[in-house]
Amino acid sequence: LAKTTQPISMDSYEGQEVNITCSHNNIATNDYITWYQQFPSQGPRFIIQGYKTKVTNEVASLFIPADRKSSTLSLPRVSLSDTAVYYCLVGDRRDDMRFGAGTRLTVKP
Amino acid sequence: DAGVIQSPRHEVTEMGQEVTLRCKPISGHDYLFWYRQTMMRGLELLIYFNNNVPIDDSGMPEDRFSAKMPNASFSTLKIQPSEPRDSAVYFCASSLSLTTDTQYFGPGTRLTVL
């Protein structure tokens, strides 16, 4: 199982761009990188998924360098409602993808 | 679709009692997963089903835990007898496949065993 490492916590202010980096040095060829968001008292929610280079959707962007040993989730212009825990998962099957401790993002006014 | 539905949302019971948690996956999803989340251990995969058949229960902590999926629209996670260390939030999730399809989580059941 590919192991991931993320910062435990991050602080930001409203309107700023937030970048959360995840390290996955032993990522396998078939593995995808998936990010989830979890608000208090809710289940995790899918944000974005990618394999290489850059992926963008209406919520976030995901940057993956050529060696794929890390990835960066970018949240543009965060608001207070983006305060949550963000999880980085790596794998090619659901049962191989483990939720780590995640990164607790706190957005301040 | 209403998403993944779990009941009850909160359960408080006494040690030794039987607890049954329920889940209704999203219609058409072939995979159903049960997770447990605690502060100490984070979010752990307990068991998952494919087309109502349990595939991997290696995450089930011990024999006191059992899960069933009698049909495509219903699953239960039972703890008998319950212990205080079982206190956690239990999530059910479903997805179309085991590969890279999005996994949808329910709101969770917060279990407190006194």
Strand content of chain B: over 45%
Number of E-type strands of chain A: 9
User: Portion of residues in helices of chain B?
Assistant: under 10%
Question: Would you tell me the structural class of the helices and strands of chain B?
Answer: mainly beta
Cα-to-Cα separation, first versus last residue of chain B: 36 Å
Description:
The complex is a heterodimer of chains A (109) and B (114). Chain A contains no helices and 9 strands. The mean pLDDT of chain A is 93. In chain A, strand 3 and strand 4 form a beta hairpin. In chain A, the strands form 2 sheets. In chain A, strands 1-9-8-3-4 form a 5-stranded mixed β-sheet, with no helix packed on it. By secondary structure, chain A is mostly beta strands. Chain B has no helices and 11 strands. Chain B has strands at residues 5-7, 10-13, 19-24, 31-38, 42-50, 53-56, 65-71, 74-79, 88-95, 104-105, 109-113. In chain B, the strands form 2 sheets. In chain B, strands 2, 4, 5, 6, 9, 10 and 11 form a 7-stranded mixed β-sheet that branches. Chain B starts with a strand and ends with a strand. The interface between A and B is medium-sized, with 19 and 25 residues.
Short account of what is shown:
With 109 residues, chain A is mostly beta strands. Chain A contains no helices and nine strands.
